[in-house]
Amino acid sequence: MLALRYTFPPHPRSQAVGLWGQLRMVSSSSSITAVDDDQLPVIRVPQRLQQQKLKRGAGNQAVAVGLRLVKPGRQLIVGKRPQLNQHSGRIFGKFDQVPLVSKGWKHRKAAGDYFTINNTRTRPPALPGDQGEEEEEREERQKSSGKAPSFSSLGLCIELQDALDKMGISRPTTVQSQAIAALMRRKNILCAAETGSGKTLSYLLPLMHTLISERLVPIDTDWTGPHGLVLVPSRELADQVYQVAQSLASNLNLNVQTVGGGRGLGNVKLALSRGQIDLLISTPGILWKALKRDFISLRELTYLVLDEADTLFDASFVELLEGILNHTQIASNASETHGVERKAQLVVTGATFPGGVGELLSKITDLGSITTIKSKGLHYLMPHVKQKFTKVKRADKLSEFLQVLKQLAKRPEVGILVFCNNAATVNWLGYILEDHRIKHIRLQGNMVAEKRSSIFDTFQRGLIDVLICTDIASRGLDTRRVEIVINYDFPPTLCDYIHRAGRVGRVGGKVLGTVISFVTHPWDVELVQKIEASARQKLMLPGMESKISEATAKIIAEL
Q: What angle do CA 375, 376, 382 make, to 5 degrees?
């Protein structure tokens, strides 16, 4: 008796044994040698034909036995339970059920479970060429042909280019290239880009270029006020922007001043009376007090920047901000930024898109005049930062935290930010670290201004490696030395998580960094589930605003 036996070579991407192994058929088109049942001939089917057959006729059966043709790659999600791990090449369909490690974390028995979202890129996406090897090769070709963007090609004056060279900055980031080009054309812009992408230089460079190229002289000789104004939500950020501006203006004969709350109105009045101010960096509260007491006027303002706009448009600042904006005149088109009765050019920046920005800005300018520059990474998890989530019981969180911190403290000169949700927890945790002889400093909003002013600078210079803080340190601060962010308290919103995670992996930093989060409460779990689902599906975090106006806002670029 003659028979045919079909066998298949092993396929590295499938487990199709059993689907085809017992198939018996007679093919007149095949050349087969007939032998006994004890030694059947073998017909080998090419792998490509197997894949086509699986897709056409046996797709449903293949899925039933768990057959997956997944592109191999590094692990994106790695957890305590290997069956829930996910390769970076895995792509879920729109209606696929997404497995979650954190699905059952609201149950008390989930304590001790964990998962890590690994980084899939090796450098911040804010840099040109963030799309992988192909994009990097294209960038190298642009460099060799002289087409790569540079500060010179953006039209900045030679004095600013020299200042940038002294700061060790040789080329613009992607967001800087787009924003500077628009601002040099006198556009009002809303720049929404991920943390650490270089937004500060994006507005400072064209602002200073305008100041030194036009050398504005006030029409009213009794007028006391700045030509350029930068509003930021915290004193620490005001000091940081001031330092960057001073570095740029060191040889430009520009008067740059900063004022912040908590330093006394007498000191504020003194700072505002030191001659004609070219650029003022301020927080909203103290500026509003100065306006009400006629220490300063904004009637000849030519450049207004609202930095970290998502915080400035928060309920705690929005009334102050609206009062300040009522003292300004914002241009509705480029032609209004010239001449005797010129109006101010507007810049709004943030790492998360402010939901209420459209409603307020529509009261002072035409939304159609605002050009929106939005990065591709906006509201996505940062692909170059490793992020670990651990479910712990509330009673065990302190011991888990101390164990992690002591391990990290063994590494020399590692900058560590520890975030808490309120000032009381910052102080309490500080006392615990003192008992364990772990050197640290604390930063929270209830501290007096004199004490706060030097704390972050001490950490930034590397004199102390552990900083325990509230979200006051999560907005806009330059934290390039930070390697580890620890969320001792999980942040209350996804926006807060984005800002905290953005303290690592910044442009110019030496390491990509890691974020470690302790998850305790049910409401924490709900946010973690949204984060994990977004990571697995490669989607932006849910519930974020993505535009200021359906009808009028113009998006000129997706970086």
A: 100
Q: Report yes or no: 344 and 280 within 8 Å, Cβ to Cβ.
A: no
Q: Tokens standing for 383? A: 């692909």
CA distance linking residue 487 with residue 489, whole number of Å? 5
Give the integer Cα–Cα distance in Å for 288 and 514. Answer: 39
- Nearest CA-CA partner of 472 in 265, 197, 239, 199: 239
User: Which two three-digit tokens encode residue 424?
Assistant: 């009381």
CATH level 3 topology of 149-375: Rossmann fold (3.40.50)
Please provide the DSSP assignment of 423-444 as one string: HHHHHHHHHHHHHTT---EEE-
CB 179 within 8 A of CB 374: no
Structure pTM?
A: 0.77
Torsion, Cα of 513, 311, 358, 362 (10° steps)? -140
Separation of alpha carbons 481 and 22, rounded Å:
62
Of residues 367, 354, 374, the one with CA closest to residue 182 = 374
CATH topology (fold) of 75-123+381-537:
Rossmann fold (3.40.50)
In the chain, where the domains are located: 5-64, 75-123+381-537, 149-375
Longest dimension (CA), the chain: 113
Q: Is the Cβ–Cβ distance between 419 and 491 less than 8 Å?
A: yes
H or E segment and range at residue 374? strand 370-374
Per residue in 323-336, pLDDT (tens digit) is 999 999 998 888 88
Any residues with CB less than 8 A from the CB of 452 and at least 6 apart, and which?
235, 236, 262, 443
Instruction: Give the tens place of pLDDT for each residue, 227-277.
Output: 999 999 988 899 999 999 999 988 888 899 998 876 678 888 888 887 788
Pairing of strands 279-282, 228-231: parallel
* Kind of pairing between the strands at 75-79 and 86-87: antiparallel
Question: Which three-class secondary structure state does DSSP give residue 555?
Answer: strand
In which residue are the tokens 């704390």 written?
455
On the question of a common fold for 75-123+381-537 and 149-375, the answer reads: yes
Q: Which residues of 390-405 are buried (b: 16+ CB within 10 A; e: fewer)?
A: bbbeeeebeebbbebb
Pairwise CA distance, residues 213 & 18, whole Å: 77
Please answer whether residues 516 and 390 qualify as being in contact, where contact means their C-beta atoms are separated by less than 8 angstroms: yes
What is the distance between the terminal CA atoms of the chain, rounded to a whole angstrom? Answer: 70
